[in-house]
Specification:
Oligomer: heterodimer
Number of helices of chain B: 19
Strand content of chain A: under 5%
CATH topology of one domain in chain A: MetI-like fold
Helix content of chain B: 40-55%
Strand order of the largest sheet of chain B: 2-1-3-11-4
Radius of gyration of chain A: 23 Å
Number of strands of chain B: 16
Largest interface: A-B, 27 and 31 residues
CATH topology of the largest domain in chain B: D-Maltodextrin-Binding Protein, domain 2
Number of domains of chain B: 3
Shape of chain B: globular
Number of helices of chain A: 10
Distance between the termini of chain A: 27 Å
CATH class of one domain in chain A: Mainly Alpha
Chain lengths: ~260, ~425
């Protein structure tokens, strides 16, 4: 076990080093500004930006920390709304096979639509770019949670529900003590997929609407063809994505159970 | 007495002076009269023989403090927006009693929606946009007004380096071009240029709307053969060594309008004093930018991340007109970009004929009426005069196109003008 762990770390470091080496070799010898920037240039930019993450020079120029915070805040709102809707609807659909089959075709049609495709419609109808961005997050994080919740609730062992019926538990108690805990691993798996797609969508949405956020930051740096900043932002987006996923991974381990 | 009306503004004073001048026959006569009867009596006497109030009202509606001081003005980070942007760091908004925050938008569709939705109070637009939006073409129909042009000239056709041998429109068949937006001078000027060279812009080439920042990247990737775009993205392509400047837009139509300052008609009528103050700030800034001696200072003011986010070097090359063209030459074209706020109605009529020509405008409209409603030449003239600048007395002029054989656009004969083109959709 211990030896495995050491080997994992060793391989990880090795892969990282090889990737950096390939990157450095690919750009070496080329004059700065004529090809993508190398790791050293990106590291310098990163050091500079991380040194002042929270500066605020007006509405169009804020530090990376403020940009990430704006994106995370926006995402938290949209993701929470989506999760509440998806879990409630998912429980209903999971408990009623007939309803599930009736609603399923609509879900299947709506699910593959890129959340960004809704943006023009939202802007036109709700007339507020910040809310439109939040709604894009809702659309992106609704379906995985909904599908997983419905599936999780539908596959709860009949025995559990029967016992609950025999004990004459009230509906709220049945929901809180039996249904949700039994379906929890499936629901959290859905939430984990959703948080990933929400984070993917927020960057693209912010590139469209502008304002504040890591997506806007990428767009603004792109505007200036400042690729070092763009690469740094890509890495920052990746790191935050990993942290979000790890958080929900932890939650899922705590909620899993053996039948 | 040194003024007759109640308002203390410059324009009001100018009108009063003009009346006094006419009635008393010059400064001496006025002073003598006032010395005899006293100031207020002089005012009353004057008001009894001449409708002072009415004269002041004709020059401008009644003024007062701005109804709303905290404003948001949208902009796209291009040099065309120079007056709108520089007015913040250089204090032109403050000077006219406003607290304006300029907000960067990512695309023309976005700037349109931010403005229609009221998230910005007024906005930077491409000069064809307020016309198109007012007519409900390519947008929901919302009445807009456009009291000032931002820049004239200042655009260019940039081609990818691999097309270095290309010297005329005729050699561009099969090209893929980028323009910033359908309803842009860029689209209409590129189409005009191609068609004059015998290339049908709808059949022989592809023209797509591409956000300016993506243009350089697309040119590098070989995804576009060229574009007619706002600066700094022409000069940026040279700076990045991926393209060269084939033709400045001023060599198609010298003095053509490009970007503009626009707002919903609602904003102008519900907060007239704010609108007037904002217009004064913009016109003031535009006039300041017009002076070539100020261009370097302006380049430094608008380069930071909060505004254009571009290298100062590139902005200076654009604004001073001394620039490398990407073919190994350094060129000096002082009027590469210029700033002139006056929105001639004839400019609007030309734009409308082109919207008609290329099938964007499918219905028949009275060109002059639309031009009159959207391009507020009168408001701009009043503002220019109030600030002490000269302003054109006529709102409609003939425009001269310099490309190849000189052609004249007569705004009184739009139908004949349209019919004179061999390549057109309608």
């Amino acid at each position: 076990m211990r030896r495995d762990r050491l080997r994992v770390v060793a391989y990880s470091v090795l892969i990282g080093a090889v990737l950096l080496g390939v990157w450095q070799a690919a750009v070496a010898g080329k004059p700065a500004g004529k090809s993508i920037p190398g790791p050293a240039a990106v590291a310098a930019t990163a050091a500079h930006m991380l040194a002042h993450p929270f500066y605020d020079n007006g509405p169009n120029d804020k530090g990376i920390g403020l940009q990430l915070a704006a994106s995370l805040g926006r995402m938290a709102i949209g993701y929470t709304i989506a999760s509440v809707i998806a879990i409630s609807l998912g429980v209903v659909l999971g408990l009623s096979p007939v309803l599930y089959r009736a609603v399923n075709p609509y879900v299947q049609v709506l699910k593959p639509i890129s959340p960004l495709a809704w943006m023009p419609l939202f802007l036109y109808t709700i007339r507020d770019s910040a809310q439109a961005a939040v709604l894009v997050i809702v659309m992106s994080s609704l379906w995985p949670t909904l599908a997983n919740t419905a599936f999780g609730v539908a596959s709860i062992k009949r025995d559990y529900l029967n016992v609950a019926a025999i004990l004459q538990l009230s509906w709220p108690r049945r929901l809180v003590t039996v249904i949700l805990p039994a379906a929890a691993p499936a629901i959290v798996a859905g939430l984990r997929i959703s948080v990933g797609s929400a984070w993917v969508a927020i960057v693209a949405a912010e590139m469209l609407i502008g304002g504040t956020g890591i997506g806007y930051f990428v767009w603004n740096e792109w505007n200036n063809l400042a690729l070092t900043s763009v690469i740094f932002a890509i890495l920052a987006i990746g790191v935050i994505g990993v942290l979000l996923d790890a958080g929900l991974g932890r939650l899922s381990r705590r909620l899993s159970y053996q039948e | 007495m040194h003024r007759i009306g109640a308002g203390g503004d410059i324009l009001g004073r100018a009108v009063d002076r003009a009346i006094e001048h006419a009635v008393f026959g010059g400064e001496l006569g006025r002073r003598a009269f006032i010395a005899c009867v006293g100031a207020s009596a002089a005012a009353a006497a004057l008001a009894s023989v001449f409708p002072v109030g009415a004269a002041r009202a004709i020059a401008q509606e009644k003024t007062g403090p701005p109804e709303k001081k905290d404003l948001k003005v949208g902009f796209i980070p291009i040099t065309c927006a120079t007056p709108i942007i520089m007015a913040e760091p250089m204090g032109f908004y403050r000077k006219h009693g406003l607290n304006v925050q300029v907000t960067k938008a990512s695309s023309w569709a976005m700037i349109r929606d931010l403005s229609i939705n009221g998230e910005t109070d007024a906005t930077h637009m491409l000069s064809p946009m307020p016309l198109a939006i007012s007519l409900g073409v390519g947008s929901q129909s919302v009445p807009y007004v456009m009291p000032a042009i931002e820049n004239i000239n200042g655009q260019a056709i940039t081609l990818a380096t691999k097309h270095k041998g290309v010297t005329s429109a005729g050699q561009m068949k099969g090209f893929r071009f980028g323009v910033p937006f359908d309803f842009s001078m860029h689209n209409f000027l590129l189409r005009y240029y191609l068609a004059e060279g015998g290339v049908d812009p709808d059949k022989d080439v592809q023209i797509r709307a591409v956000p300016p920042p993506e243009m350089v990247a697309n040119l590098r990737a070989g995804n576009l053969d060229g574009y007619l775009a706002p600066d700094p993205f022409n000069q940026r392509a040279v700076f990045e060594e991926v393209g060269f400047i084939h033709l400045l837009s001023k060599d198609i139509w010298p003095g053509h309008p490009c970007c503009a300052f626009a707002a919903k008609r609602d904003f102008a009528s519900s907060t007239p004093n704010t609108f007037r103050a904002l217009l004064s700030a913009i016109v003031d800034a535009t006039q300041y930018a017009r002076d070539r001696g100020n261009r370097k200072e302006i380049a430094a003011a608008i380069a930071p991340k909060n505004f254009l986010n571009q290298p100062v070097e590139v902005l200076e090359q654009v604004l001073t007109g001394v620039y490398p063209d990407g073919l190994g030459n350094t060129r000096t074209v002082p009027d590469r970009i210029d700033f002139d706020p006056f929105p001639y109605h004839s400019m609007a009529i030309w734009i409308l004929t082109q919207m008609k020509r290329w099938g964007y405008l499918k219905t028949d409209v009275t060109y002059r009426k639309v031009a009159d409603e959207v391009f507020l030449a009168g408001a701009c003239r009043d503002t220019l005069k109030a600030l002490g600048y000269r302003a054109p007395e006529t709102t409609s002029v003939k425009h001269i196109f310099a490309l190849g054989k000189t052609k004249v656009f007569d705004p009184d004969k739009p139908a004949e003008y349209l019919a004179s083109f061999a390549i057109r959709k309608v």
